[in-house]
Amino acid sequence: MSNENEQPLMREMLEKTKTIAVIGLSDKSYRTSYQIAKAMQNEGYRIIPVNPNVEEVLGEKAYDSIEDVQEPFELINIFRRSIYLKELAKEIVKTDADYVWMQQGVMDHEAYDYLTKHNKQVIMDQCIKVAHAVLMK
Q1: Domain spans of the chain?
Q2: If we measure between CA atoms, which residue out of 78, 81, 84, 118 comes closest to residue 98?
Q3: 6-136, which class in CATH?
Q4: Cross-strand partners of 61
Q5: The CoA-binding domain covers which part of the protein (predicted)?
Q6: N or C: which end of the chain has fewer CB within 10 A?
Q7: What DSSP string runs through the chain?
Q8: Is the CB of residue 50 less than 8 Å from the CB of residue 65?
Q9: How far apart (Å, rounded) are the C-alpha atoms in residues 22 and 15?
Q10: Using CA atoms, how far apart are residues 115 and 117, in angstroms rounded to an integer?
Q11: pLDDT tens digits, 56-67
């Protein structure tokens, strides 16, 4: 798992979050984004799908972009390819969410720096489900 200095931030994120907006959440049950979002939903988090190609996922209305979400959420979980992160970061800084979590394999150091400069707390290249299993026992 992550280096140890990230673990307190991960724990804080998981404890303080009630609602997770999931960018790139698929409605296909075999996709990793779906399986992880469903697992987090089963742990008691509300999931807000953000994907212009779906109407709803896991019983929740989907939004086209993170800026379209009308409901409060504390954490943004990103399941998009890394090439999209710089563009997404510009949208994310316009939201009230304090936390940004880039899934395993999702990395862009410029996007990370941009987000942290705009007062977002960021975890990069980690699986939220694994972290939850390890830290929230």
Answers
A1: 6-136
A2: 118
A3: alpha beta
A4: 56
A5: 13-106
A6: C
A7: ---GGGHHHHHHHHHH-SEEEEET--S-TTSHHHHHHHHHHHTT-EEEEE-TT-SEETTEE-BSSGGG--S--SEEEE-S-GGGHHHHHHHHTTS---EEEEPTT---HHHHHHHHHTT-EEE-S--HHHHHHHH--
A8: yes
A9: 17
A10: 5
A11: 999 999 999 999
Summarised one tens digit per residue, pLDDT across range 18-41 is 999 999 999 999 999 999 999 999
What is the distance, to the nearest Å, from the Cα of residue 100 to the centroid of all Cα atoms in its chain? 6
User: Tokens standing for 24?
Assistant: 């790139």
Nearest to 69, CA basis, from 45, 50, 88: 50
Is residue 1 pLDDT above 60, yes or no?
no
Which token pair is 9?
A: 């931030």
Q: Encode burial over 106-136: b for 16+ CB neighbours within 10 A, e otherwise.
A: bebeebbebbeeeebbbbbebbbbebbeebe
Give the separation between CA 134 and CA 79, rounded to whole angstroms: 21
- What is the rounded distance in angstroms from the CA atom of residue 11 to the CA atom of residue 129? 12
